[in-house]
Amino acid sequence: MTEAALALAVNDVIDGFTVVRVLDTRQPSRTFLVRRSLNAEDIVLKLSRPESREAEVLQQVSHSGVCQLLGHGGDSANPYLLLSNYGQRTLQNCVEQGIAIKTLADVLLQIAAALDALHASGFAHGDVRPEHILVTPNQQAVLIDLHCAYHLAGQTQNIPYDGASLAYLSPERIRAGLLDEDLPLTGASDYYSLGITVFQMLSGELPFAEDAPELLVQSHLNDQTPKLPSHLQAFQGLVDGLLKKEADQRIACLAEVRDVLGSISGDFQLSRRVIRSSAIGTQELSALFADLRLRPDELAKRNKRLQRKLQRRIALQSSLVIMLSGSILAGLLFFREELLPVVEEAAATLGLIENPALTAAWREAQSLALDPNQGLSTIVAAYRRVIDIAPGFSQATEALDTTTQAWKQSINQAMVDNNLERAEARLLEAETVFGSDPELTVLSLRLQNRFRAERLLLSTQSLLRSSGLSDEASAAAAVQAFEEILRISPDHVAAAAGLTEISKHYGALAAGAAQEGEVAEAIRLLQRATAARSDLREHDGVRTLISQATSIQSAIADLLQRAASQVASGRLMAEGDGSAAQLFLQVLATDPDNESATQGLLQITTTVIAQTRQLLEQGAIGSAQAMLDLAEAEGLNATPIASMREQIDSEITRRRQIAVGLEQASVLFDQGFITAPVGNNAVALLRGVLQLDPGNEQANTLLGQCANRLAQVAAQAREADMLIQARAYLALALSIRPDVEQWQAWEQAW
Prior knowledge:
By secondary structure, this protein is an alpha+beta fold. The protein has helices at about 55-60, 90-95, 100-120, 170-180, 190-205, 215-220, 235-240, 255-260, 285-295, 300-335, 340-350, 355-370, 375-390, 395-415, 420-435, 440-465, 470-490, 495-515, 520-530, 540-570, 580-590, 595-615, 620-635, 640-670, 680-690, 695-720, 725-735, 740-750, and strands at about 15, 15-25, 30-35, 45, 70-75, 80-85, 100, 125, 135, 140-145, 150, 270.
């Protein structure tokens, strides 16, 4: 790189990087948007000073809130840094476009976290201000421009001042620059700069905004932190804590910032505003401090000038009073003609003679008072001019009092009309004109409460829109919020309406639960309804429904108790009323969803089915059928009863098939059809019977007889030298009775 790089333009190429856009050419933050190739992602190229520690710091700090170093290059004379591209929207841009207080608070927390990461790595940023805080579209805050960063392990003598802004400089850094002494370093200086930034973003102005550097230095060292507008007083504690003059007393870590911000409730939009910057731009502070060290008396001149100005004003007013009173006496005694105008003016103050100046001033004041477009300061100043001319003119004093009270009443009326911006503007003007005033203090407190109430109302309405009244936790939180609003603003219509809506919602749910017989749930929901509003007439109807449901529940409880007694005594089913099954059915007729009755009937049905199955296994088919008939008559669950009937019918069919098979097999055996014809012989039928009833004794006996008959035929065939036939019949016999040893021996011998 060469000096030509200092004047980069679009399409210039440096070390393979093409300039896409010029971002900032001001010293020391000369930045450009560059691209390695057409398809590569755009990154930021920053021309750096050789003495800058920025690359060193970024290489050692890894945090999402600190800009990421992608690389560096150039030579020792003209180094450059390659940085991630976070866009160009600064915190100041966000505020000027309008930003939610919640979003601003989140940005501050992110920056505090980034500062803590820097400090933990042993570095301070050195120049925290709005233009060095970027906010991405997804609301991620990032610290950039660490050209003034320095080692916390070092001393203040090594701090790089040049390029930093005096408007954001901490008192300890100013003292170090003025005294040219080595002082210990902490990260608290960065938090002081953050405090200046917070005040500026909230109010639109810097807390200390002098036009001369020496006066700005004096303000940082001695002036108290100004007050924020009344609707932003919740942030005053944070600003005061960040702008403590002594570093060891200052809020100086994320945890402390979070603690203070955590006490700020509500969410409202910070309206668009113009951010006024310091008239003193970024300059060579090292040279400035050196110059001021040569002129230490300049640091005290501001206070001295103010004191002298005030003293002159007081002396002048006192002289006029003394001269006026003394002139009356002197005029009467010695210098009547020379002091006649003075005497006439004094007499006019007592209403003794006509005074043209007084008349003109009075008419002007009256005219201004009748003009609705005139501000309070103008009207009051006009009446005060009248009183200055004629201190004893009671009409002017009374008119001033009337104007004052009317203005205060207009503030109150604006709050009644919920025009809080108008109320705030009028209150600020009144405080400017009258200063400390007990009535204004009361109005200010009321207005703060109204602003707080509106913020709380907006956040509560947002909660209900996102969660709905069905979310009981959100509804409970909304009730608490509405009650708090009414506590600080008893006549708040929207909060009262919100409580009514919640109360009616849960009252309707309670009525529905009572109608469903869910008494406990109905009572719980009614409690939620009355917690919001206990005086709604609709709740009386809900209480009636709950009472009716309670009576029904009592009757149901009695039926369930009797049914349990019948179950214990074994009277599950019986003809007529009084059985356990009948009692459970009575409960379900009143409460179809009653779990106890449903489970009771299920238990009875299960027991009846088990008993029926036992009878069936015992062969008592008639008894089993009779029990099912009784269960059906009692009204038990038809599905398991029908299933059991199918099992009984299946058993009857099975037994019939066994009997028929045995009978036919016996006939075929007698007829000699032992194994033939295929499918219709004694052996086939008997094997079919054993498949239905494996332990059937009759079938096993007859099947053994078939095997014996086949073995006899095989022996006869062997004796007749019909060896093939003998083997065939023997095989058939063994297929039926493979365990007969004699037949096994024959098979071996044959």
